[in-house]
Amino acid sequence: MQITVLADRARTGGYEITLQQGAEGAGPPPHRHAWDESFFVLDGEVEITTGDRTVIGRPGTLVHVPALTAHAYRFGAGGGRMFEVSQGPADAVGAARMFGNVARGLPPGPPELPALVQLLEDNGVTLAEAA
Fold first, then answer.
1. Range name among 1-5, 20-24, 35-39, 61-65 with the lowest pLDDT average
2. Is the pTM of this model over 0.85?
3. Section 117-123 average pLDDT
4. Cα dist. 101→1, 37, 104, 119 in Å?
5. Which end of the chain is more exposed for a tag (fewer CB within 10 A), N or C?
6. Domains of the chain, CATH where assigned
7. Residue 103 pLDDT > 60
8. Could you tell me which of 126, 95, 124 has the C-alpha nearest to residue 19?
9. What angle do CA 116, 17, 8 make, to 5 degrees?
10. Contact, 79 vs 44, CB < 8 A?
11. Which ranges in the chain belong to alpha helices (H)?
12. Is residue 70's pLDDT more than 90?
């Protein structure tokens, strides 16, 4: 996946916006964190699961994920792109900072799973059994 931070808290005063794009099958495992997220699908299809609900997002679909809700997503055939808008408590790491910290904390190449899990936990993300 490629994630581009378009706006962080320092720039907006609270919310953050990222552009997320990925190849078919790309996406994070089920997880939760202290910030709300909304996904707006721009291109392709994205399967977004929140709690026990799954939505096949096509261009123009908006899905909101409340803080602490287990969720996951996968890009469909041909990949896709979407905006992610997030906002959370002032003491939460936040999506933009988490993405930067994880990118800087991992060496190039496929990540070692224990190191990745620890980096995520250090940045307020916990893996969930199922979304």
1. 1-5
2. yes
3. 88
4. 16, 18, 5, 8
5. N
6. 2-127 (2.60.120.10)
7. yes
8. 95
9. 80
10. yes
11. 9-12, 95-105, 113-122
12. yes
